[in-house]
Design goal:
By secondary structure, the chain is α+β, with helices and mostly antiparallel strands. 31% of the residues lie in helices and 15% in strands. Helix 1 (4-14) packs antiparallel against helix 13. It comes from Paractinoplanes atraurantiacus.
Length: 381
């Protein structure tokens, strides 16, 4: 007999919302994983539990763990200015007003810190003006002309990390550090900072410190050609999205949205946080760091500034944290979604993990996240 999860997945596939998807609910060591449908509309390649997906912004929590690992190694300090590793941003000024000309700036009240990057309060990122994302303000036009790609997964950032940070450092901040929450830029800057702090490429750092210890064999900024060939077709609003070649390492390994992974690989990462930093009896991250990562660090005003990106949730380090009860659960649930059509959460109070992977961006707004989130609490694997 089909599980409730499989039935819910099949119903959405039958309605034509997805060609297929993979979903997983875990409680402790017990896991229910389902794969339904195919990897492309009109295709015949079945979705499998081990199908790889572009997980987009579900990359961000991985970056937060890597940052905290380096902090515990005393390689970096969360409170220190990022200019210690990124001299290109030293002396960045701040726009006199966010929608004003780039020539009208004021001095920064304080330096941007590593923690500001984790909490997305560095004073730069995607701009929300009412219901509009990235309005045609001078600062938005400037970063678009510089190809900094503050949002979106493809085309992938064309610049090498050193060139990207040089271009970023040529612009003023939008708001004073620590004042507002702005999406995405923090983990782009971290992509450069972590590699410099560790003295190795970001992909090597994540593989050595996270992927290999957790057994995440099919996760990376690129994957071998046979695995890349299995990536499902990407869709948004019914249209195929060209996503390029993921079998080659990118010029800029994006800590904001550049990873490929699988359901079980990401479950290994989710369990590390559920288990307060321990994997198989080995501590990889302190309990204190996990607590800091999964606790809200925003004020109510900053949460409000996150508008529909946050939807009333707070923000820890690289992920959202619910601060009050919502349609899915009580407060304290943490996780994040990816713009390619993926989502994940852990509920530390109920011991529940949900992972849903598709390559249909509409997952973010078609009700799937809420439906499957509520369903996860009724399932006993």
């Amino acid at each position: 007999m089909a599980s409730q999860l499989q039935q819910a997945m099949a119903a959405r596939v039958e309605r034509g919302e997805f060609p297929g998807l993979v979903a997983l609910v875990a409680r402790g060591d017990d896991v229910l994983a389902e794969a339904v449908g195919v990897t492309a509309f009109g295709g015949d390649t079945p979705m499998r539990r081990d199908t790889p997906f572009r997980i987009a912004s579900m990359t961000k929590p991985v970056m937060a763990v890597a940052t905290l690992m380096l902090a515990e190694d005393d390689v970096l300090d969360l409170e220190e200015p990022v200019a210690k590793f990124l001299p290109e941003v030293a002396g960045q000024r701040v726009l006199a007003r966010p929608d004003g000309p780039l020539s009208e700036t004021v001095a920064a009240e304080r330096p941007v810190t590593v923690e500001d990057l984790l909490t997305f309060t560095l004073g730069f990122g995607a701009v929300i003006d009412g219901d509009q994302v990235d309005p045609p303000w001078p600062i938005v036009r400037a970063w678009q002309e510089l190809d900094l790609q503050m949002l979106g997964m493809y085309p992938r950032i064309p610049h090498e990390p050193d060139e990207w940070i040089k271009r970023f450092g040529s612009l003023p901040l939008i708001t004073q550090p620590g004042h507002r929450w702005n999406y995405n830029a923090g983990t782009l800057v971290l992509s450069v900072l972590l590699a410099r702090a560790a003295g190795k490429p970001l992909g090597d750092l994540l593989r050595e410190r996270i992927f290999e210890p957790l057994g995440m064999r099919n996760t990376g900024f690129s994957v071998p050609l046979p695995l890349a060939a299995e990536l499902p077709t990407q869709y948004e609003n019914g249209e195929v999205q060209e996503m390029g070649d993921w079998s080659r390492p990118p010029a800029f390994p994006s800590g904001s949205g550049g990873l490929i992974s699988t359901a079980d690989d990401y479950l290994a990462f989710a369990r590390l946080l559920h288990n307060k930093g321990v994997r198989g009896g080995t501590r990889l991250l302190s309990e204190q760091s996990v607590a800091a990562m999964t606790t809200n660090h925003l004020t109510p005003a900053q949460i409000e500034s996150g508008s529909f990106f946050l939807g009333g949730s707070g923000w820890g380090y690289g992920l959202a944290v619910t601060v009050e009860a919502d349609e899915v659960s009580g407060p304290g649930r943490y996780g994040w979604s990816g713009g390619c059509g993926t989502t994940w959460f852990n509920d530390p109070h109920e011991g529940v993990t949900l992972i849903v992977l598709s390559q249909v961006s509409d997952l973010l707004w078609n009700g799937t996240i809420g439906e499957f989130g509520k369903l996860a609490y009724t399932i006993r694997p």
